[in-house]
Amino acid sequence: MGSPSPWAVLLLTVLAGLCAPPTAQGKPNFIVILADDLGWGDLGANWAETKETPNLDELAAEGMRFVDFHSAASTCSPSRASLLTGRLGARNGVTHNFAISSLGGLPLNETTLPEVLRAAGYSTAAIGKWHLGHHGRYHPIFRGFDYYFGIPYSHDMGCTDTPGYNVPPCPPCPRHGAATSPTNKDCYTDVALPLFENLTIVQQPVNLSSLAERYVEAAARFIQQARDSGRPFFLYLALAHMHVPLEAAYGAALRGMDAVVGRVRGLADGCGRGSTLLWFTGDNGPWAQKCELAGRLGPLLGAWQRARGGSPSKQSTWEGGHRVPALVYWPGRVPAARSSTAMLSTMDIFPTLVALAGAALPPNRRFDGLDVSPVLLGQSDVGHKVLLHPNSGAAGRDGELEALRLGQYKVFYTTGGAKACDGSVGPEEHHQPPLIFNLDGDIQEQQPLAVASSEYQAVLPAVSRAYAQALEDIATDNTSVADYSRGPAAVPCCSTQHVACRCRAPASRMALPEQHVERRAPRRCL
C-alpha cells in the first residue's frame, strides 16, 4: 500500500491522542477486521515460514490466537453474509457470490449485526469491501451502518487505472468522447471499479494504490466522531487484501495488510487501552488458481483431493478452504499469549458481540453461531461440537451442506477440487458412506479412515445423527431466499456518458452525515 504521507501520519496521531475515554455506559467498542482470501499459513504466529506479519504476530502475543477457526463458507458473499447474520447460507439465503449487476443482495428480512448494535446505542460503520448487494435497499447504508466507505464488491470486478496484478486496466477515454453504457456481461473492463462514500460514488475508477491508506483515514475519522458523541462504536473493516495483491508480489501485499492492522490497532489503543475488542480473521482460504498471487495453506494441504486434481483451498470444503487465521485482542480482558483449540466460526462473532454489548439476539430465527465470550475471556475452551461446511463453488450445489466436522472428525458426503494453479479441477464425487478423516493425526487430510475399521464404525452413527439433526433444524427454521436476478440498472455508474463510467471527483471529505440519505448529486465524469 506504500508509505503513508507525513500529513496522514500527523492526522492519525492527533486523532488517536484526542480519543475520549471509554463510554459512560461501560460498553466495549468493537472492531472486526476481515481479510480477503487469507491463507491459514499467512500468519507468522501460525506458520513459522511466514515473516511478513509482525503486527499480527504481536497481536497474537498480546491476545488470543485460534488455531481451529473457520469461515462459514469458502467464498466471498456467503461467508460475509454469515458473519453479519450469525447464520449459514442455508438459513440466510446467500449461497453464492453477487455480481456487479445483481439487483438483490442479503435478504432484507435478515437482521444484521450492526442493526442490533445500533439499536443498543452503538455508532456503526462499514469500511472496505461489501459484496452483499449494492442496489437500492441492499446497500450497506440501509443494513445497519451509519457510515459506509468502500467498494461494493471485489477489487478485480472492475477496471482501474492502477491495475497492479490481475486487475484489468480501464480502456482510455476516447479522443472525441463517444458515449458508452455499461453492459450486462461479466466483462469487468466495461465498468470501472467504484469507490462509495455512503450512497455517492466519489471516485470511478478507484485508485487502488491509495485505497488502504484511505480506509485507515476513514476509520480514524469514524472512531473519533463516535468517541466525540460519547457512544460506543462498531467498525467492520473488510480489507481488499489478499484477494489479488495490491503490490507487485504477494509478500509485499501481506506486509501492507499487516501494516494496516497495526495502525488500526494503534487507533484502538489510543481510545483507551482495554476499551476496544479487536477481532481479526479471514473470509475464506487462499485462491489457489492465482498461483504465485495466492496465499499459504500451511499444513492444510488437502492431500487426498490434490492427488485427484484441483485445489483444496478457496471454494472447496477442505480445511484449506475454510480454516482461517483468527486473533482477538482486548487488553485486560482477553488473556495474552494464549492459543485456543476450540472449534469456532466467523458466525460466532454475531452472538458474541451482541452478548458483550448487553443486547439480545433477534427473535423468531435460529443461529448457527455461538456466544463464545467465555472462550475469549479465558474461562472455557469449548466451542462447537458440530460445524457444517456448505458447498461454495467447487463441487455440489451451492449452499448445500455436504461436509461437516464432529469433534476431530472431518466428514465428506461430496468432494471435488476448485481450479488449481495447474488448471486442473478435481472431479465431483459423492460418498455414501461418507469419507471420514481424523484431523488429530491427519491435518493434511491425506488418508480417510477405512470403512471397515473399528474407529470408522464407532464414529459413523454419531456422524449420521449429527448430520440428520442439523439438516432437520434448518428445515424447520425461519429461512430466507436471496434475489440473484441481474439487470443493467444495478451496475454502479456515475455517468453513462463516459467510457467505463469514468468520473473524477475532489477528495472525499469523509464527513459522517446525520441522515442516512446522501444528498449530494453524483458527480459528472470529466
From TrEMBL:
Glycoprotein as UniProt keyword: yes
Reaction equation(s) it catalyzes: an aryl sulfate + H2O = a phenol + sulfate + H(+); Hydrolysis of the 3-sulfate groups of the N-sulfo-D-glucosamine 3-O-sulfate units of heparin
Signal sequence annotation: 1-26
Annotated GO CC locations: lysosome
Cofactor(s), by name: Ca(2+)
Localization per record: Lysosome
Molecular-function annotations in GO: arylsulfatase activity; metal ion binding; N-sulfoglucosamine-3-sulfatase activity
Ranges for domain Sulfatase N-terminal: 28-359
Tree of life domain: Eukaryota
EC code(s) of this entry: 3.1.6.1, 3.1.6.15
Main location: other
Keywords: Calcium, Disulfide bond, Glycoprotein, Hydrolase, Lysosome, Metal-binding, Signal
Annotated family: Belongs to the sulfatase family.
Protein name: Arylsulfatase G
Biological source species: Penelope pileata
Source organism phylogeny: Eukaryota, Metazoa, Chordata, Craniata, Vertebrata
